[in-house]
Amino acid sequence: MAQLLGVPAAPYQPGTPGVLVVAYDLNECDPDVVAQLHERVEGQLLFEHATCWTDPPAVTADVSTLLGQIVNAPWEPGLRFGEDGEPQEAEPDQRSAEELAEAILAAAPATPEGDGRTPPDADETLTAFATRAVGWPAAGPRDRIRSASPVRSSRFA
Asked: In sequence order, what DSSP letters do the residues of 88-104 get, joined into one string?
């Protein structure tokens, strides 16, 4: 992510102001490190890629890419969709984090077609949102959200 944004990357240092802290899945991080993220530091933004709504992390990220029940990271075994579009058991990707990042950066961007029933996710919309959020005064602790579920009940009728 640092290379994409054109900023330096460094291991997390507790209490550092004005930084973007990035985690793939906070539940997979060292609990002592996650506990240090509970109290906000001025200008610090916590980004989590995959947030589990059935087992919310001990702290709530400021931004999350994906809210899911089960997410397998590329470096874990799991189901993947083959070229034929069918799911298949897949081995973990053996490439290093650096190699994975290079492959992502080298990939040609593709505009999602959408389903025709929802508004498009245009780059301009995301840019406008990010521009408005720049001055967002995040304050207070990052408390755990006890019910991060998009479903109010486990009963489906």
From this structure: EEEPPP-S-HHHHHHHH
